[in-house]
Amino acid sequence: MAALGACEDWLITTCDKKLVAIHTTQSRDQFVFDCSTAEEKPKSTEPDNKSDGGGSEETGSDKILAFAVSASGNLMALTDDTKRLVLFSREPTWQIISTRWVVRRCTSLVFTHDEKEVWLADKSGDVYSFSVVEPQKTGELRLGHLSMLLCMTLTPNDKYVITADRDEKIRVSHLMGPHNIQAFCLGHLEFVSSLLVPAGHPQWLLSGSGDGTMKLWDYESGRRIQSWDLNQLRDMPNSDTEKRSAVSRIAGSPSGCHIAVQCERVPSVQLFVMDGGEEERLVPSSRLTLSHCPLDLTFDPQGRLWVLLDCRETPLLLYTHTEGSWTCNNESIELKRVIEALQPHWEALQVSAGLESRFHHLYKVSFDNMASYRQKKQERLNQQHKQPGQKRSPRNGQESNSASKKAKKPGPKASS
């Protein structure tokens, strides 16, 4: 998975099995973590959890599945296909705090805002919490869905954990007692693929889905406030199912004034701005047209937008917001420094970029059962219709049996 994140003056990217952290303002050594050379799971004599379909015997590919950065930027965590959970510290220098093992492959990671725990959602629908204070402690099961979890986020006050799954459900649960459900946000028609509580608006939730829409919610009540069809914003007809594209990323600027939305395999980024009227609303502001499809995007602490592209010559773009518009800053020293540092890792990045859609298997498959039923019914009717010059075939053999019985019935005895 190719992903992008910002951590103070560091730009972080994951590509295949590697995580690379590059300092944007100083010529400092980059930090590279390669999962293929990471700590191996110790062999245990105790039976492993087999609820992953016997997956305990599987050999992982070491590909990074998700990573997260804490609110302060001092902590980072990643999880990979070999079911590692690796915790890092940034200060004074990048270092590994712990390597732990999870039960199933992870789909989403998030730190609590007090940075005492990191929460992990997995493909079976379970959510575990892992202690940061006790970095060797095993995870604790906190909640579960009946469907695959795809994304998760926490509210800024650590009051709620918000989880979203393949079956279009967004659940708002109390963090301290996840069995206590506050609300459901329902309305998407396909899997929910992205969540964001925007900065400066702790009562709001943005969600993106495989149905190509983004919705704004008051998550405590589950009330939908706004909805946008991103196909329409791109002047694409809804009926064209071949062009439907899942929302793969929703990112917000540190000020909360700007929202950037990326759709899978679409060479553009849709931007929204906060309308500060009597009743605050998000409105579409502009669309950035790109030469290649973006792999991921993120805002840095300065409010600049970084876009990771599927292009060796220009793997990154940097946009700044000035005088009411977004401008691509190709001459930025920071951008050139990061691209130069990223070039040696292009082979790994290209592996991630060349993968097929990570959402294609999540779409609902519809079957036209009625067409098959009508066809078979018509065939039966055709068989039952009397053909010209032919007698109608007996039904269930009843007529032939009756005729046979009449033929065998003895006549009256002759008188002597």
Automatic annotation (TrEMBL):
Q: Where are the WD repeats?
A: 185-227
Highest taxon, organism lineage: Eukaryota
Q: Which GO terms describe its cellular component?
A: nucleus
Q: Which segments show compositional bias classed as Basic and acidic residues? A: 38-51
The molecule here is called: tRNA (guanine-N(7)-)-methyltransferase non-catalytic subunit WDR4
The cellular location(s) given in this protein's UniProt record come to: Nucleus
SMART domains listed in its UniProt record = WD40 (SM00320)
Keywords, A to Z, come to: Nucleus, Repeat, tRNA processing, WD repeat
As for family, the record states: Belongs to the WD repeat TRM82 family.
| HAMAP family in the record | TRM82
* Gene3D superfamilies xref list: YVTN repeat-like/Quinoprotein amine dehydrogenase
Coiled coil region boundaries: none
Q: Per the record, where are the segments of Basic residues compositional bias? A: 405-416
Q: What segment(s) does the record annotate as region Disordered?
A: 38-59, 375-416
> Its pathway?
tRNA modification; N(7)-methylguanine-tRNA biosynthesis
Which function does this protein serve? Required for the formation of N(7)-methylguanine at position 46 (m7G46) in tRNA. In the complex, it is required to stabilize and induce conformational changes of the catalytic subunit.
Q: Which positions, given as ranges, span the membrane?
A: none
Q: Name one Pfam family in it.
A: WD40
Q: Which InterPro entries match?
A: Trm82 (IPR028884), WD40/YVTN_repeat-like_dom_sf (IPR015943), WD40_repeat_dom_sf (IPR036322), WD40_rpt (IPR001680)
The record's Gene Ontology biological-process terms are: tRNA (guanine-N7)-methylation
